[in-house]
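To: structure subgroup
Subject: Chain for Friday's discussion

All,

I'm putting the inputs and outputs inline so they're searchable in the archive.
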Amino acid sequence: MIRFILIVLYLLLFLVLSIPALLAEWLIGKRSPGRKDRFSKALVSWGFRCIAALAGTKLIVRGKENIPADSAALFVGNHRSYFDIVLTYPQFPGITGYVAKKEMLRYPLLLNWMRNIHCLFLDRDNIKEGLKTILKGVEEVKSGVSLCIFPEGTRNKVNDTFLPFREGSFKIAEKGGVPVVPMVILNSADIFEDHLPRVRSTTVVIEFQPAIYMDRMDRSEKKNMGAHVSGLISKRYFELKKEYFPE
């Protein structure tokens, strides 16, 4: 419980004490949006690294050479834990936001920081509003901002399983003309979700797989992109599990 309490206290202090930084970023953004983006990226990455350290997480990252250096990308991963965001965000080399559920809009200050790092908020129950979010995502990646999405649509609550990947999640990459980078996240639920409310020191593996360029695929392949990427991630997930966590 001590780790959990420390993380909650840290998060609350970060949000409150960073209010001046939010005001400074607002002013910086008036003159230099790019500088504001870089400042947000650095500060949020630092904050997430501190949370991971408080959790006692040992992170193994593989495949960063597979992240395209010449364009934005759509990062796509499996999702088991709140810590998936904490651990993945500092690994992205450029400005990157997440596609988050609209319910996150209810949390002040956290909402401000999410907007500052280009997060988008998806209404999963309203098709029209969901389409608007996808179109906004297309604009973001065309402008050079990468996005990360978890196509299962929610946190999977069962270890070593995968919910279906929603095909609409890939429209951002298809319409925006950017590559899809599959992202395998292994053992993140062992930090917190598998033994609520304790936070446990553990090892987490993140691996970025080779980028997929949808403009090089035929129509049938694009139509089944969700199943294809889910298959790539699940296959590699179990290979990594056998390598790092043999029974």
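Points worth raising on Friday:
The mean pLDDT is 95.
The chain has nine helices and seven strands.

D.
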